[in-house]
Amino acid sequence: xxxxxxxxxxxxxxxxxxxxxxxxxxxxxxxxxxxxxxxxxxxxxxxxxxxxxxxxxxxxxxxxxxxxxxxxxxxxxxxxxxxxxxxxxxxxxxxxxxxxxxxxxxxxxxxxxxxxxxxxxxxxxxxxxxxxxxxxxxxxxxxxxxxxxxxxxxxxxxxxxxxxxxxxxxxxxxxxxxxxxxxxxxxxxxxxxxxxxxxxxxxxxxxxxxxxxxxxxxxxxxxxx
Length: 225
Hints:
By secondary structure, this protein is an all-alpha fold. The protein folds into two domains: 1-74, no CATH class; 93-225, Serine Threonine Protein Phosphatase 5, Tetratricopeptide repeat (Alpha Horseshoe). It is built from 15 helices and no strands.
């Protein structure tokens, strides 16, 4: 049996109409979705193992869960910029965007370059991907210098006026994750949030206030001491 068909059949065994309805309620495009939880997708990924060519084949099926699975099993070292550009153009849901960024894209050598490039794009989910990539890089890339993340703060400021829900939430996510990385970046992120708060934009004020609530909060400050 073809491996892709075998995997799709396996995913189908975990499909749930209830899960699919829940996905739709959370703003996820379910046109090509089966209704499989991420927990079960990850279970299948462990069974399948890492395989770059298989990941590309799974992506081409258009099945929502197969694409998330592809982002988990792909090999970051074999991912090209051309592949990242092709995949990001297919993003049609915030969860697919975020899963690709946190499972795969932020571990490629192109993470920062694409984060900056995509943050300038007009398409909603591509722009979200730019800021989601900043957030997941701040979370996962432990060896990156503070100065590299500090350079992203003015870009976050520029993106903070985007009123679209899926974009502004990713902008906020990026600001918070950079600010939670360490004490120095926390100070810089708080200072930038205060600048953003002064912008005459409802979206910018929300981004700033929500970020400040966490970055200045007792839990974060205690952890960074």
